[in-house]
Amino acid sequence: MATSNAIIAEREREFESLKSEARELEMTIQARIDVHAQHLRFMSNVPPIQAIVSIRNESADKPEDGEDVWNQRLEKIYTGLLGVKPDYLSISFIELETLDDNAFRAQELVRVERNHATGTIRSIPVSRLQSFEAGPAIKKVASLEYGDYHIEENSLEADGNEDLSSESIGLGGIPVFDDATGELFGAVVIEGNMEAGLRKMLDGALRTAEEVFAVNSNHRVILHYDQDEGFQSGTRGQGCDCLPLSVQKYLIDDKSDNQFTEGRAIVVRKIRFSNKPDADWLGLVLMLKSD
Predict the structure, then answer these.
(1) Regarding beta strands 150-153 and 266-272, do their DSSP bridges make them parallel or antiparallel, or are they unpaired?
(2) What is the pLDDT of residues 92-107, one digit of tens each?
(3) Where are the domains of the chain?
(4) Distance CA 108, CA 187 (A)
(5) End-to-end CA distance of the chain, in Å?
(6) For residue range 201-252, what is the model confidence (pLDDT) as tens digits?
């Protein structure tokens, strides 16, 4: 009996530690989301933005310096941010042309990016800036009010056609309006390496969890860590059916609470990327392997 009580007490201690780890990771991830949002707001309000907007809209009070001068100034600002944020992959300022009620043509005006292999930061020449039809993420950004932002994990889509060898990307965007008219002009977009950020957070931070899964809003695994074997690649891109049934049901229910526990072995947190009701989320599943 004494031995049994000791085992139960130890299991309870481990479970409390597991819940504590989940809370700490949630706070760390939420802090990173908040920083991403702050950078979106700041980078969409630096002086070159409205200068470029007024020049392209041919406003009466447009600045004397030409658009190329302001583009270079914006490139320097964006290069500076990438220099201090190694998890950021690119920053773009794009103009949006309305095609119909729910379609936009996006034109990159300024883009600064990090070379994935070498880490070198470079500004993309005008001749290589892209024009493209805006996808769902940019359309979502275009629908927002002033000051609102959208962040999503967008490298693993539900259709199963993604390149599972690519790392998970966190895309954040914020709309840009013409201060003179109040009309939508475009957006600022920051892409970050979400997988690298999660790996850094988990590495050395886990004391109790024996297995951890990160799951996106499409219910697909974007990261899997095993205490004995380290980070696993075999489960990347799989549906959440590789998780216990109770966890699957919780994750699939988008209206469920932001936390879930089962027994003394599983703790799950849903971390939402904004306070919008339809905001994307990151599911963090911490598990003990055996009772």
Answers:
(1) unpaired
(2) 999 999 987 778 999 9
(3) 35-195
(4) 10
(5) 17
(6) 887 778 888 999 999 998 999 999 998 888 888 888 888 889 999 999 999 9
Q: What percent of the chain has pLDDT over 90?
A: 62
Closest CA to 172 of 42, 36, 270: 36
Confirm if 112 and 195 have CB atoms less than 8 A apart: no
pTM above 0.85, yes or no: yes
Give the CATH number of domain 35-195; options: 2.60.40.10, 3.30.450.20, 3.90.76.10, 3.40.570.10: 3.30.450.20
Helical axes 47-56 vs 67-84, angle rounded to 10°: 150
Max distance between CA atoms of the chain, in angstroms, equals: 86
Burial class (CB in 10 A: 0-12, 13-18, 19+), 246: middle
